[in-house]
Amino acid sequence: MDSVFGVCYNGGVILAADQSNARSILVYQENLDKIAELTSHSAMGVAGPNCDLVNFTEYVAKNIRLYELSNDGTKLSVHAQANFARGELAYALRRGPYQVNILLGGYDTNEADKSKEGASLYHLDYMGTLHKVPFGAQGYASYFTLSIMDREYKENLNEAEAITIVEHCIAEIQTRFMLKQPNYIIKAVDKDGVRVIKYGSDPSDN
Amino acid sequence: MVAMAGKDCVGIAADRRLGVQLTTLATDFQKVFQLNDKLFVGLAGLATDVQTLHQELQFRLGLYKLKEEREMTPQVFSHLLSQLLYEKRFGPYFIEPIVAGLDAKGKPFLSGMDLIGATMTAEDFVVSGTCTGNLHGMCESLYKPDMDPDTLFETLAQSLLSAVDRDAISGWGGVVHIITKDGVTTKELKGRQD
């Protein structure tokens, strides 16, 4: 029932997710942050049960960090991080699948090769289907938002335009989706890292 | 997807849709993979298994090349793929692959198999995917033996496009690879985007 979607723009990627944490008829909280930060310059928006969200994102993030520590500070590209996550999901699929559908967005700062610099967004489903996309959505949100993004997306958007598209998507879901999802958290990943653009309810009131 | 043999050449073509039941997620998904100069494999079925099997096959081919110091021939590759699939007999990869290549003597090789590795080699064409009925019909009508590369391209392209147009969950573009002893030409097809 989670809504997770994202849009790439020139210089970064926007990720948005609803903040509801609910199971069956009970709503546990309305300020959950479902966009987990993997590295300083990448994040995963995750749709699925909270247990798998936390377990899988921590597992991937810590293993990426271990790679950096073991390999003299070598940073993994967003493509590499996405492929690592895909491999773990594909391995687990026939043993005990993680029920997480992910949108992984990140920014590659590549001083050595400027042609490889830039933002990218990967659609990764729970079975391990990985595909690089300019924009994407997971969950029921896709039925409401993909057409809007098809219509409004163009090459070389700037950050403000990308956020506008995301806000149109949120408005559509809040109008037409059966479940009430009043709060959304929106994050941007660009050359300066991952930062929160806006949230409906502060996730950090522990 | 479909593969056909011509005169000293083979071609393989596939659509480009990545879908989840009735939702189309992408129109640029790769399902046909070049594994060496003269060998292509088309993997139709569950997308995650397409990607896993592609990685597995690349690995096995690389290992073969290191150990044997020669390229794998299509016949051997087809047998390898069949074994890989049957190993998972009671928990299979949901893939129905087709293999297209030129053997050491430059003779075309085509084979197709089901998800547990039952192989069939053909002299004319092999098909796979959700619209195999349509593809069989198109190929049977349009195929002629000993086509040259350009004619083979046209035949493959028309067979694929007409077949996927009658299938709601296939299409959204196409790609055709023609393999001759001199190399590979790849062309994107412009088709109905519905």
UniProtKB/TrEMBL annotation, chain A:
Q: List the InterPro entries.
A: Ntn_hydrolases_N, Proteasome_beta2, Proteasome_sua/b, Proteasome_suB-type
Chief location category:
cytoplasm
Q: Which top-level group of life is the source organism from?
A: Eukaryota
UniProt-annotated location(s): Cytoplasm; Nucleus
Instruction: Provide one Gene Ontology biological process annotation.
Output: proteasomal protein catabolic process
Pfam hit, one: Proteasome
Q: Coiled coil located at which positions? A: none
What protein does this entry describe? Proteasome subunit beta
Organism for this UniProt entry: Seminavis robusta
TrEMBL record, chain B:
Q: Does the keyword Metal-binding apply?
A: no
Q: Tell me the CDD domains matching this sequence.
A: proteasome_beta_type_3
UniProt entry keywords in alphabetical sequence: Cytoplasm, Nucleus, Proteasome
Q: Name one Pfam family in it.
A: Proteasome
- One GO cellular component, as annotated: nucleus
The keyword Cytoplasm is annotated on this UniProt entry: yes
The family database entries (InterPro entries) matched by this protein are listed as:
Ntn_hydrolases_N, Proteasome_beta_3, Proteasome_sua/b, Proteasome_suB-type
Listed under GO biological process in this entry are: proteasome-mediated ubiquitin-dependent protein catabolic process
Protein name per UniProt: Proteasome subunit beta type-3
- Please classify the protein's predominant subcellular localization into one broad category: nucleus
